[in-house]
Amino acid sequence: MKSVLLVEDCEDDIGLVEQAFRRYSGAVRLETVRSGEAALDLLRCRLIGERPKLPVCILLDMCMAQGNGIWLLRGLEDTPALRDIPVMVMSETGDMLGPARVFGNVVGAVQKPARQHEFRKLVEDLARIAGAMPQSVG
User: Which Gene Ontology terms describe the biological processes this protein takes part in (predicted)?
Assistant: First the structure.
């Protein structure tokens, strides 16, 4: 089963993303880590073996206490097998989004949504990236 990796340290936001992902639970599994350091450790461990089990995309909070978003994006870029994983970045403030856009694997940058319907829209975009739902027509 395909997976999306959520890198987020706020329990409330984790809950909102998990709730929005439930409708895709048959096609996409959501995995959560609470820091950039934990994300990079997990991804590098997954590279071991013949068939790496990497997520099809990453949803990344840019502002975290341990291993913020820029730190993780640099770590992904420095690891050839990880640098092409699409990343959607989000932040409560727009000032962290601009610097993230210079990384080649960043496919979108959004101000962190505060309402459930905004998280659902964000998750729909991720589900399209993950191939769990068809691309929009029109």
Answer: phosphorelay signal transduction system
